[in-house]
Specification:
127 residues, mainly beta, seven-stranded mixed beta sheet, four-stranded antiparallel beta sheet, 1 helix
Length: 127
């Protein structure tokens, strides 16, 4: 099992940057593929980015490609989401998630593939 705690959210003006962190408990963090999702008020939860267990492979939603970067540090049990050039439409609660079943290449953007979720961190981008 793994427990996830997000941090780094906040209020930022459009064009600004934030870095989200997701700290994981457990000694097997390096065996989990990780993802970031977000949910805006009144909308479905949507995929943002994913990274495989080793960090070699990353994948992004079209809406954030070129602006967001996902990375991980397995020695520190942490996954990051660097968000640049933020837009008001990026406003949402951001969740990190872990998948320990090895479905990264087939289901990395599917929220249902992730068995563990953090509590979320709010990101608000003002215009």
């Amino acid at each position: 099992q793994v427990q996830l705690v997000e941090s780094g959210g906040g209020l930022v003006q459009a064009g600004g940057s934030l870095r989200l962190s997701c700290a994981a408990s457990g000694r097997t963090f390096s065996s989990y593929d990780m993802g970031w999702f977000r949910q805006a008020p009144g909308k479905e939860r949507e995929f943002v980015a994913a990274i495989n267990w080793s960090g070699i492979s990353t994948y992004y939603a079209d809406s954030v490609k070129g602006r967001f970067t996902i990375s991980r540090n397995n020695a520190q049990n942490t996954v990051y989401l660097q968000m640049n050039s933020l837009k008001p439409e990026d406003t949402a609660v951001y969740y990190c998630a872990a998948d320990g079943r090895g479905t990264y290449y087939s289901r990395r953007s599917d929220a249902g593939a992730y068995g563990y979720w953090g509590q979320g961190t709010q990101v608000t981008v003002t215009s």
